[in-house]
Design goal:
Blueprint: H1 3-26, H2 33-52, H3 68-86, H4 91-95, E1 97-98, H5 103-110, E2 116-117, H6 118-142, H7 152-157
Helix pairs in contact: 1-3, 1-6, 2-3, 2-6
Length: 171
């Protein structure tokens, strides 16, 4: 993949995240598993961005968010910071090796991890988020909500709309 394709995946990720948040905030009776799953994948998004930018990890525990709205505003902040990194992607940056601070934990489970590039790491981040967005969508339906259509191809067919964060548009 080239840099423009990675940028597209990251743009789609934001659009899909925004749709999921709108559904979560409007769900008739969401349960505690939904914010837990959202916190997990947004923590992963923040952690990957911080590692890719060479910053120290700073990811808050779930208890830092008293309600879903505060968690959503934090998730929204990630998507405000991501464009500076996303828009700077080029082939050199994508091929750079990435060292993850959690590699030792991975080694305990999978053996010695091989090297990963920034491009491979971005793809992992997008796929990981998609997987957990699917879990949130399933739980939303079980709680009486209507999960949104977040497929990549739907975003393409809709001519790549900008994300609509609705009630999570903070000043």
């Amino acid at each position: 993949m080239d840099a423009s394709e990675y940028r597209s995946l990251l743009l789609h990720m934001e659009w899909a995240d925004a749709l999921v948040w709108q559904s979560v905030l409007n769900a008739p009776r969401p349960d505690d598993s939904i914010p837990e799953r959202l916190h997990h994948f947004h923590c992963t998004q923040w952690a990957y961005l911080q590692v890719l930018q060479g910053r120290p990890l700073d990811v808050p525990d779930r208890g830092a968010f008293p309600d879903s709205r505060s968690l959503g505003l934090w998730a929204r902040r990630f998507h405000r910071e991501l464009p500076a990194y996303r828009d700077s992607l080029d082939e050199a940056k994508l091929s750079r090796r990435v060292e993850f601070p959690w590699a030792a934990r991975v080694a305990e489970r999978l053996g010695n991890p091989g090297p990963a590039t920034a491009g491979e790491s971005i793809l992992q981040l997008v796929l990981h988020t998609t997987y957990h967005r699917g879990q949130v969508a399933t739980r939303l339906r079980e709680c009486g909500g209507e999960p949104p259509l977040t497929d990549f191809i739907a975003w393409i067919w809709m001519r790549r709309p900008a994300p609509d964060w609705g009630g999570l548009e903070a000043p």
